[in-house]
Amino acid sequence: MNKREKPEGYDDALSDYKACLFDSWCGKPVAWGFEILKRISDKRFAALGDYGSLECSYPTWFLIVRRLTRVEAVTLYGPVSAEGFGPRGGWKSVTFGTTKFISRSLREPRLRPEDTA
User: Fold this and answer.
1) How much of the chain is in helix, strand and coil states, percent to nearest 5?
2) 76 and 39 together in one domain
3) Is residue 10 included in any domain, yes or no?
4) What's the domain range around 53?
5) Is residue 84 part of a domain?
6) Rounded to the nearest 5 degrees, what angle is found at the Cα of 32, between the Cα atoms of 29 and 33?
7) Does residue 80 sit within a domain?
8) pLDDT tens for the 117 residues of the chain, in order
9) Whole-structure pTM value
């Protein structure tokens, strides 16, 4: 199945492929897929999980099939210019060029403040 095509049997339940989730700091899209347009049975809903990640941005549910990666973000916005951490070392943000993101999906795995020094 092409990621931009709806899973078979869900034509009436899913929107067309589109940007679904946006970074709450900069407003840029970070995840693409399909909006779930109507209530479907629990069994059919669970089966959608075979095609991607089921996520809620209240009150709307989405089937996410693609996420922005750090490599794509560098291509689109520029190299990593800053990585933000909280007082206890927890990851807070990453800035690509001049565009700051706070979406956890863009966090470098196991990145610690001392790794950026």
Assistant:
1) 20, 35, 45
2) no
3) no
4) 18-67
5) yes
6) 155
7) yes
8) 678 999 999 999 999 999 999 999 999 999 999 999 999 999 999 999 999 999 999 999 999 999 999 999 999 999 999 999 999 988 999 999 999 999 999 998 765 555 555
9) 0.87
